[in-house]
Specification:
With 287 residues, this protein is mainly α. It has helices at residues 3-22, 47-79, 85-129, 153-164, 170-178, 183-188, 192-198, 253-282; strands at residues 212-224, 230-245. It has a two-stranded antiparallel sheet.
Length: 287
């Protein structure tokens, strides 16, 4: 590494440590690891261990997300002080981009995680509390020659809804779940998660991706009108391939941070709804 670049990185990191130690944003406390409400004697089989472990790991994930948001905000403040675009880019590339990438994937990932753990936990509660409830989840193989059916997100959420919809409080939890990784967030971040996972992600701050876009549209032909002008008229039943200049603009880090923080807040609310509903249902398990 060039000596001047190394010195610049060292200076930037000192500024980052100072900023991180002084900043109070985001102003949230870490989620608690007090799961004592789960401690019941009559859990069926290994139900307690399954539920407690998955709740703990999900708490870890959300707390780590908060950690990364704190660091993202601190680096934003540091990089804002660099007027030289090349220096700002070098610092951003070295210290921030991987962290931002991780944060931008979290809303989609945590929604799936919450569906996963809540399906498992509420299933275990019902096994323990309901005499005639079978240890079977939709998608499980019914015979030795069958394979598990792996559901889409929509079907997983539908299965969860059927599992708990008859419980009071379930609608609040399910409503809060659906707000995570919403269409508005996807639009504000230029569908970063899907593009990063399946195509090409938007750049951060500088650079445009996908200059040329291929699309398939209904074919048209130019036809002369009564006034002598020509207009494009759709050709029924025929499609055509179109190549056009487009371009996905880079994400502004301040805007992306703000939107990602909103998703963290929604996730935190959903987590509390889930934990509250779980605590309520665990009360029906005998001590």
């Amino acid at each position: 590494m060039d000596e001047q670049i190394a010195k610049m990185f060292a200076t930037a990191y000192k500024e980052y440590i100072k900023e991180l130690s002084q900043s109070e944003e985001p102003s949230f406390k870490y989620l608690s690891y007090d799961f004592s409400f789960l401690e019941k004697e009559s859990w069926r089989g290994l139900g307690y261990q399954l539920v407690e472990n998955e709740l703990r790991e999900t708490t870890n994930i959300i707390n780590n997300w908060l950690n990364n948001l704190m660091r993202w905000n601190a680096w934003n403040n540091v990089i804002d002080e660099y007027d030289d675009l090349e220096k700002a880019w070098s610092i951003r590339n070295e210290f921030l981009e991987a962290l931002v990438h991780h944060c931008l994937l979290q809303p989609s990932a945590i929604r799936d995680t919450i569906v996963f753990i809540s399906t498992n936990s509420f299933h275990q509660v019902r096994i323990t509390c309901e005499e005639n409830y079978k240890d079977y989840l939709e998608g499980d193989p019914k015979g030795p020659n069958e394979k598990p059916i792996y559901f889409s997100r929509k079907k997983k959420e539908g299965r969860l809804m059927k599992l708990i919809s008859h419980w009071g409080g379930a609608s609040r939890f399910l409503t809060s779940l659906r707000l995570i990784n919403c269409k508005e967030y996807q639009a504000q971040t230029y569908d970063y998660r899907n593009r990063a996972s399946h195509a090409i992600a938007p750049r951060l701050e500088l650079g445009v991706t996908q200059f040329v876009i291929r699309s398939v549209i209904q074919a048209e032909e130019m036809k002369k009108q009564e006034d002598g002008k020509y207009m494009p008229i759709p050709i029924e039943g025929k499609m055509a391939v179109r190549y056009s200049f487009g371009g996905i603009q880079p994400l502004e880090l301040r805007v992306a941070y703000k939107e990602n923080l909103k998703q963290y807040v929604l996730t935190r609310k959903c987590y509390m709804e889930y934990k509250g509903l779980l605590e309520e249902r665990v009360k029906f398990i005998k001590d």
